[in-house]
Here is the input.
Amino acid sequence: MIIRVACALARAGRAARAERVLEDRGVVVARAPADEGLLEWLERAPADLVLVEARALAGRRGASLADLRAGPDHPEVVVFVEREDAEARARLLAQGAVAVVYHGVSDAALREALLAFVARRREDLQRRVRARLLERRSGLDDFASDSPAMTEFLAVVRRVVDAETSLLLLGETGVGKEHLARAIHEASARRSGPFMAVNCAALPEALLESELFGHVAGAFTGAVRDRRGYFELADGGTLFLDEVGELPGHLQVKLLRALQERAVVPVGGERALQVDVRLMAATNRDLQAEVRQGRFRSDLFYRLAVVSLLVPPLRERRVDVPRLAQRYVEHYRRRLGKSVQGVRADALDLLVRHDWPGNVRELINVIERAVLLATGDEVTPADLPVEVSGPRAAAPVTSDDGAGLDGPWLRVRDEALRDLERRYFTRLMTTCRGRVGAAARAAGLSPRSLFDALRRTGLRREAFRNP
Ligand SMILES: Nc1ncnc2c1ncn2[C@@H]1O[C@H](COP(=O)(O)OP(=O)(O)OP(=O)(O)O)[C@@H](O)[C@H]1O
Ligand SMILES: [Mg+2]
Here is the structure.
């Protein structure tokens, strides 16, 4: 994790000394411009640690410690003083300084102190990242299976967990590519570092470059402050690029360079930033075909695909269905406050037979709905949607009015909504010829929500391109 230090020491010699002693991998020092107020500058410049003189905090024009700490990144503040003065020191610490440093200390002592604060800040950030990761826990055990397809697959996965190479995760929609990426990260030596996931298809092309690589203030209209890109945020950990096949050509070049040089240049910036990131990429497109058709660079493909892992679809590991179903019954029972304990044998049989075109995600949706509908202790076939339970024998439809209107209200409503959703988005994507940006605008949705809807309805946007 890269720690940004904002150096606001007034004298050039002192600022240069701070830069020199802070020279370390993973620390970037920026000097405050002389012609701008400190607070204004910090609005633009990311900062984990601010170095400032006590003098600059005093007086009417000075920024208070509280103001500094309230900045966008909530930095820690190290205050430098000319003389050792126990009272002033106590006062500064009480006001929230992380430390008070006497200018007269030796280079070695200064280096030791500053690097200790850097390390502390890094631990804080890592703890926060980890807390977020734990909310969405996934482990390789989640993929443990009796099926030959998965046993073989996991044996390969375990060999590459710590290999540090890039991984390309392939497989149908909903098979668990992202779940696997998190699990591999969690099992690897990088587990104490961040796991950052970016969906290349969900971000507008114009923003993607600065999201990935960061930008400096003023790089383009609207870039009012420096922005840390995902590569920087993932330093020391793993960056997961979802739908990497959607990356436009010029960013494919930039990504390849970042991988080869282990450094990124922010948009509008001049200096390269060293980053230590393991890349995992995923796609449910046929990337090799994209390479043949000239839509994906072959050099990047080979770089990414040093190891590629094809997650088997659920229908090739049906023995996993009961375990996954039970896991998610328990999950939704708690979430929805129901008493359902499991799936009755006849319903389980239907689940195991189903082909699961939407894989684990589809199974989760089916279970959520079943837990919602179930009235007793067990999920029964009546709680499953028609795609899974097959056409029902009951209630032959004789006339138009009343078609599909028999059964529990929640089920009828769900099915009608799902049907409407599918029809709406099919029409929308046809009209917009598969262009997500245009479709999202026409529907009044964010690209993210549109993606979620496409996912739910199992529509593939490629299917609407140049028919
Ligand atoms: N082995 C597993 N155990 C438990 N949950 C799983 C497992 N595999 C996948 N899931 C869950 O299934 C859902 C879909 O998985 P995920 O998002 O990883 O799929 P994906 O392959 O990335 O899909 P897409 O191609 O559509 O992006 C997620 O909620 C994930 O947590
Ligand atoms: Mg995914």
User: Anything to note?
Assistant: The mean pLDDT is 88. Residues 3-132 form a domain with the Rossmann fold fold (CATH 3.40.50.2300). The pocket of magnesium ion (ligand 2) is lined by residues 177-178, 242, 282 (CB under 6 Å).
